[in-house]
Design goal:
The complex is a heterodimer of chains A (112) and B (112). Chain A has no helices and eleven strands. With 112 residues, chain A is mainly β. In chain B, 0% of the residues lie in helices and 54% in strands. In chain B, strands 2, 4, 5, 9, 10 and 11 form a six-stranded mixed beta sheet that branches. The chains are: A mainly beta (112), B mainly beta (112). Chains A and B meet through strand 5 of A and strand 4 and strand 5 of B.
């Protein structure tokens, strides 16, 4: 039982480069989210999805895109990386909103 | 907008002592309050949660209390052990909403 799988675990990008952070879950959860974690700021919601084909913005969506073509996958795309996007990124999934969130192991991204 | 304030940001206790972390939420419609523990290099993991129809919930050495009138909820850890050392996050969400709001986190150190 894999749960929520995020790849890669570490990534270094140059300013202006683009990349996709992958997230997959095998629990048939409808709700998936992306968070960024910065020191002293907790977990801030970037984008979320309530089901395949449905996505919406969270608190800090600028510079990021998402799509949800299948229930299992919810990739996060950085369009043109900036140093301000240096952070640890977590993907999470839930059966329903007001239930336990299952988090991936995180992706530590550094933009130089 | 909705927010969750968490205190203290850092807490250091002696092994065997109790630890208390407090959170205040702003959205009076919130009705689900989970607590997550994050160990170094890992994603957050649910340790206990409470819904607004109860005032207290216990699970071995961990308990959560909820005061809906004051919009406060707290995590209590008794007989702390070194393996309790981690970052703890409180969170709040509500039926019909699509977002979970997290507190900024508390770094707990348990000294042996």
């Amino acid at each position: 039982n894999a749960g929520v799988t995020q790849t890669p675990k570490f990534q270094v990008l140059k300013t202006g480069q683009s990349m996709t952070l992958q997230c997959a879950q095998d629990m048939n959860h409808e709700y998936m989210s992306w968070y960024r974690q910065d020191p002293g700021m907790g977990l801030r919601l970037i984008h979320y999805s309530v089901g395949a084909g449905i996505t919406d913005q969270g608190e800090v969506p600028n510079g990021y895109n998402v799509s949800r073509s299948t229930t299992e996958d919810f990739p996060l795309r950085l369009l043109s990386a900036a140093p301000s996007q240096t952070s640890v990124y977590f993907c999470a999934s839930r059966l329903k909103l007001n239930t336990e969130a299952f988090f991936g192991q995180g992706t530590r991204l550094t933009v130089v | 907008g909705e927010n969750v304030e968490q205190h203290p940001s850092t807490l250091s206790v002696q092994e065997g002592d109790s630890a208390v972390i407090k959170c205040t939420y702003s959205d009076s419609a919130s009705n689900y309050f989970p607590w997550y523990k994050q160990e170094l290099g890992k994603g957050p993991q649910l340790i206990i949660d409470i819904r607004s129809n109860v005032g207290e919930k216990k699970d071995q050495r961990i308990a959560v209390t909820l005061n809906k009138t004051a919009k406060h909820f707290s995590l209590h850890i008794t007989e702390t052990q070194p393996e309790d050392s981690a970052v703890y996050f409180c969170a709040a969400s509500r039926d019909g909403g699509f977002k979970t709001i997290f507190g900024a986190g508390t770094r707990l150190f348990v000294k042996a």
